[in-house]
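[recover] target loaded
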């Protein structure tokens, strides 16, 4: 809905919410004024009752400054609220002594239920959830999304059971309401669908599970100082008495450090430091926090405290990767290092990032999407091909969009299917058939002569296809054919390490060593290399194309 401009004058709501005898005006986000009676609001909503008693704005008021200035219209006090006029009118018609409105618009139901829950309007919540469940047989996924978004666990479970009953593919069906769902809730819906509802006691869609022992809990979000800036230092307390500058974060945290270290680490910071006025030195006997805050020059940064602390740590020559345990949780650090042209600091960051991609590619993928880094997203996504995704959970999913997680799952599934298709093409080709994929794979071992056989050797394709016809196949063709079948099985395995397989083949293309331990007496290395190159090129081309199709930046 288009938002009004500040210059627009509010318009009155329609009857009966234009009664001039009303004693309060609710002003919606789209600038519609509803004349209401305080008594009805008090009876219907404990939130409004408390607000009216103390004269405060309701939670999430659209403009608190208007309330604080005691704005009125026609002598009636005005209370701005966050909801739009359509939602507010529906809520008021529910709580007023009149016929309940028809709730037949599923998308609008979300806003009605959300507002009813926010203002603790029990009657409106009951009516809204009843209306929501009336859609469950036709739109179970949409109902689940609305219920999960509003933390309605019972309604979400009912909708999920209907999804199971109808055997709907959750991964392939993604209605618009899913865009507002967290990846954590989406992960639990996928699991519920996969298990047919046979989940553990205490399972819920709206809240994450207890953190398993082998998963580290997410790092807490730094809390900004409310009034007085905090003085801290990134593990270099023995140098505090020598500090000559304070770096202040956007959320009010102060970090005493050294100008020379900032200047050496970043030419951008060097320019900022030299532009500051000189200050008196700090005496060692004075209180550190008060002395630093009052006598040292302050260099303000746009970055928050957690990011700035890491940046200052990276400026120190003896910085180690373990100085900040949550280094990799701060995707903004990469952007800040680039912003301040800290070239030397990029090395430890890249080293840590590479380790994360290898050890936890899903976490790396989510962080890369947050940074909108195409290169890092691709590197993390292809690493997912070594994993099974069914029970792959990381706590960061709780704060990520469901669409981001779903794209990774679709990419993973499509890549596995593409690899299996290539393997099937190889099997079909060597058996004498045709396939839409162009292949350069010989149907017969290059060294085969058929010597010692009653009939000429039929080639290694016959070792699988013509075995029941008792046709002759030489030992070299049999051995070579079995090697090809093993290679195809790697590609066809849903749980196979596809990324590692591709990297192994890529290495073999530039290595003169024996390939995969296959004896050169029974197998022509050049023929295997040709096969590997064919498979590597085909699968890699498919995965790159699929990355462009499914992975959003």
């Amino acid at each position: 809905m288009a938002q009004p401009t500040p210059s627009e004058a509010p318009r009155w709501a329609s009857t009966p919410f234009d009664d001039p005898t009303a004693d309060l005006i609710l002003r919606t986000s789209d600038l519609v004024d509803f004349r209401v009676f305080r008594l009805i609001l008090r009876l219907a909503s404990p939130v409004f009752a408390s607000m009216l008693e103390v004269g405060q704005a309701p939670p999430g008021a659209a403009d608190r400054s208007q309330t604080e200035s005691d704005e009125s219209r026609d002598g009636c006090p005005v209370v701005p609220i966050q909801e739009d006029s359509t939602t507010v009118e529906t809520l008021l018609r529910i709580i007023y002594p009149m016929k309940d409105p028809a709730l037949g618009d599923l998308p609008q139901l979300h806003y009605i239920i959300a507002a009813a829950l926010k203002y603790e309007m029990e009657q409106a919540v009951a009516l809204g959830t009843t209306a929501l469940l009336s859609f469950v047989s036709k739109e179970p996924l949409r109902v689940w999304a609305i219920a999960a978004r509003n933390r309605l666990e019972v309604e979400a479970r009912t909708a999920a059971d209907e999804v199971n009953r109808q055997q709907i593919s959750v991964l392939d069906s993604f209605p618009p309401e899913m865009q507002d769902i967290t990846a954590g809730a989406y992960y639990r819906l996928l699991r519920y669908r996969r298990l047919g509802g046979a989940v553990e006691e205490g399972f819920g869609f709206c809240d994450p599970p207890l953190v398993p022992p082998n998963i580290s809990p997410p790092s807490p979000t730094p809390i900004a100082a409310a009034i007085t800036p905090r003085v801290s230092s990134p593990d270099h307390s023995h140098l505090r008495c020598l500090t000559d500058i304070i770096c202040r974060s956007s959320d009010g945290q102060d970090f005493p450090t050294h100008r020379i270290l900032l200047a050496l680490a970043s030419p951008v910071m060097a320019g900022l430091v030299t532009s500051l006025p000189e200050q008196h030195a700090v005496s060692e006997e004075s209180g550190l926090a008060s002395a630093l805050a009052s006598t040292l020059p302050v260099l303000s940064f746009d970055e928050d405290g957690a990011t700035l602390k890491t940046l200052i740590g990276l400026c120190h020559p003896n910085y180690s990767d373990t100085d900040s345990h949550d280094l990799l949780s701060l995707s903004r650090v990469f952007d800040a290092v680039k912003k301040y042209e800290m070239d030397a600091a990029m090395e430890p960051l890249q080293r840590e990032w590479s380790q994360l991609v290898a050890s936890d590619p899903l976490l790396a993928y989510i962080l890369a999407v947050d940074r909108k880094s195409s290169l890092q997203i691709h590197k993390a996504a292809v690493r997912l091909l070594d994993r099974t995704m069914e029970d792959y959970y990381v706590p960061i999913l709780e704060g990520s969009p469901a669409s981001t997680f779903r794209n990774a799952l679709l990419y993973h599934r499509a890549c596995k299917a593409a690899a299996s298709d290539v393997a099937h093409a190889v099997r079909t080709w060597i058996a004498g058939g045709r396939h839409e994929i162009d292949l350069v794979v010989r149907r017969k071992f290059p060294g085969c002569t058929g010597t010692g056989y009653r009939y000429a050797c039929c080639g290694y394709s016959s070792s699988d296809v013509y075995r029941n016809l008792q046709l002759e196949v030489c030992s070299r063709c049999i051995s070579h054919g079995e090697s090809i079948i093993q290679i195809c099985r790697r590609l066809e395995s849903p749980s196979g390490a596809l990324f590692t397989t591709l990297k192994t083949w890529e290495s073999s293309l530039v290595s003169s060593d024996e390939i995969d331990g296959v004896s050169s007496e029974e197998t022509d290395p050049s023929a295997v290399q040709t096969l590997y190159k064919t498979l590597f090129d085909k699968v890699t081309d498919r995965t790159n194309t699929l990355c462009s199709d499914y992975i959003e930046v």
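[recover] notes: The radius of gyration is 33 Å.
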